[in-house]
Every structure is written in C-alpha cells, then in structure tokens.
Amino acid sequence: MTTRFGLQLWSQATDWPGFRDAALAAEASGWDSVWTWDHLMAIFGPWEQPILEGWTTLAALGPITARVRLGLMVGANTFRNPGLTAKLATTLDHVSGGRAVLGIGGAWFEREHEAFGIEFGNSPGERLDWLDEAVMLTRRLLDGERVDHDGPRYPMRDALCEPRPVQPHLPILIGGGGRTKTLRTVAQRADAWNNNGSLEEIRDALETLQRHCADVGRDIDTIERTASFHIILRDDTDAARARTVELLDHNGVSVEGFGQTVAGSPAEVADILRPYQDLGFSTFIVRMPAPYDRETIERMPEVGALLDG
Fold first, then answer.
1. Omega prior to 163 cis, within 30 of 0
2. Total structural domains in the chain?
3. If you count DSSP H runs as helices and E runs as strands, how many of each does the chain have, helices first?
4. At 260, is the pLDDT very low, low, confident or very high (cuts 50, 70, 90)?
5. Is residue 63 over pLDDT 80?
6. What is the spatial distance between Cα 173 and Cα 186, in angstroms, rounded to a whole number?
7. What is the pLDDT of residues 208-230, one digit of tens each?
8. Which backbone phi and psi does 30 adopt, to 5 degrees?
9. 46: domain CATH number?
10. Looking at the predicted structure, is the pLDDT value of residue 257 above 80?
11. Which structural domain range is residue 107 located in?
C-alpha cells in the first residue's frame, strides 16, 4: 500500500496569492492532492474573518496545476441542489484535465446557514437523509443517466449532466463518522471516506463501516480510507509546537481545546500515523491553517518514505 498525502488548506484568514502558492508548493513537493473547505464563514476563531469560496478556488487551481487531485474536504450538501453539484464537479474535472474529487458531507455549521438564509434542516438526521438522496442522484448524473426522481427532497425531471466528466468514474468522497446514517451512505455509495479522531474512535467507526458494507454486500476494500490530521514538521518538537501556536494565533484560535495536533519530526509523525496505516488508511489529509507552513509542505515526503520503507 503506497501512502498518499493530501494538503487541506484552510481557506480562512488568507488571500488568493498565499493559497495559490501553497498549493503549487504542494504539487512541486510531490503531494498527491490539494483540498479546501466548503464554508461561507470562518469556522475557527472569529467568524468575520475573510474566507474564500471552495469550488471557485479549486477551479482556479485546475489550469495552473498539472498532477494533484483537487477536491473539497468536504462539500456542504445543504448549499446546493445535487444537479448543481454534479455540474460543478464535472466542470472542475474538465478544467483540471480529469483530477476532480467530489467531496461531500451533511453540513454542520449552522451560523453560515442562518446568515445567508440557507435551509439547515430540523436535525442532523434530516440533513443526512438529504445527503443520502443527493449522493445517489449525483452519482447517476455523473454516470450519464437521464434522471427522473420524485424526491422526497430533490425532485428531478429529465435531468442530464453534459458534458460527462473527463474521468470515466469521477470519485465521490464522503466525510463523517455518523454510525447510523453517514457510514451506511458511505457503504452504499462512496468511492472514498474521510474521518478524523483518535485511533480508538477511527477503529470504532471502521468496524461500523465494515458492518454496513456486509449488510449491503460491498467489499470495504473498494472504498479508499482517508484520515485527517493537523500536522507540522520540525526536527525539534518544541519548534513544531511553537509553529502550530503561531498558525492558530493567525486564525484567532487558541491551541488549548483545538483538538488533535501532530507536531514533531518526520519520524515521530510517521510513528503516529503508522497504526492508522495498519487499519488500511492509505491517504492522510494534512489540515493546514494560513499562512501555511512551507517547511511542512516541502518535507512531508520524508514521512511517506518512512511509512513506505
């Protein structure tokens, strides 16, 4: 199993030149993919901070990159009709020459929905029902079907997505670890899955996903497993932690209570990631706040060499 790394660039508290240059540095350093958020307001620190829109940011990267895959980690299903989502992913696939990944989830940040008058639903369960229906319809549209569908959430009449994506099968990644609904949708419909948390939490989610796969007759090994971490590399652990504090401070965030961070040398980071690799996670998504850490971007291949060695 070859280890792959994706760089998830926070799109808040940044500008386009800074974001662009970090993405280009990731491609030059050998990363496999570049990701960003799908949020309309900053989600860490003060919500009033500037933030770039996700799909258009990825589309701008398409023509200026050549190799990295591009996707949202993950798209907010509530923001768009699945027909529009299919068209956005298809267009990104064309402008990138066949490198789009359609990342999607149920959405969780109520503040941005309230601010812009976007329907949030009555409960997480309702939003996850919408997600399941939307992913089903998006898959059919991406695969070239003419779709008639009576809802309950997304009625369609003779819907068609043309042109088709460049990729014969544009992959859909679903993010989240909800045991009852999200992971069942992953088992039924996803090409890839993203989750985060402690090793125990991810192991438990994986066991639940295995049960859902068995229920629907799906081979779990046909689903790419991806895990997300905040990672900063330095040979000196204290220097790595100090840089983490610096980046979070730029985003108005205190490191206390922020959550799991991985800060240390390439060998230390590889030791932390290896147990996830043993669970079948082949792709690690590195979450990185602006103004982005160039040393980590340039040195992440050292971690991959240790994991694959």
1. yes
2. 1
3. 10, 12
4. confident
5. yes
6. 8
7. 999 999 999 999 999 999 999 99
8. 100, 10
9. 3.20.20.30
10. no
11. 4-308
